[in-house]
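Checklist before submission:
- one chain only
- standard amino acids only
- sequence pasted in full

Submission:
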Amino acid sequence: MSCHENDETFERLLLARFCELFDSIVEFLEEVDAALGEQVSSSRCDIMYLTDFFGKMNEVTLKLQGKGVTLIQSKAVIHSLTSRLDLYRSIGRRQFAHFPLLTKVSEALTDERLLIYTDHLRMVNADLKIHFRDLLDLDVPTWVVQPFQADVAECEPAIQEHLIDIQSDDEAQAIFRTSGWGNLWVKYSQRYPALWEKARLLLLAFPTTYLVEQGFSQVLHMQSKYRNRLNLTASGALRLKLSSLQPAVKKLAENHQAQGSH
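Returned file contents:
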């Protein structure tokens, strides 16, 4: 787990713990500063709402992290989020099933306060649709994720014959069932280059900044004052740290010829 992920986990737990101890915290603050205690106490509903809201946003963030996240998966996550934000606006009708902490303070919620929350959800949704417009509008051909269910007649002529070939490939179907569409295209990139050429960008493109952030984190860790002359790119050290491939140490050792004593 990266430092960034640790920070998110810590912040989420801290906020949840704050809500659990809310009454005790308010009581303590009132003893120290009555005005501050009153201000925090009057913000109870807002704090509960924001805790529920950021908890759901953190769940989405975690789904977008990792080395194997593709454009297609990212599109699904963001599309799901925009639909769920529409669903969450049901709190304006006092339906709090998706906001458990807000349920605890439902009696204190005024219609004006609920209107503020629903407006906030609406604005966040609108901002997301603008910010991720290119991703949400991304055209994902059916044959890329469902190559064996796709209707060949509806696909572009340039790949129709190749698609028929892979749909007739029993071995490829077995790989698809056990490993999924992503591993299928990687494994058969040489056998079906015309299909791979169109599918590879959906697999290889970086949809999030996760790998970039991980790269910076590794550079800060490796480029210490004791190794300030280390050329991370030329030496291959950075690539080694970021690679998900595991070296075959046993095979490398077997191929290494031991030097006899002189």
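Reviewer check: The chain is about 70% helix and 0% strand.
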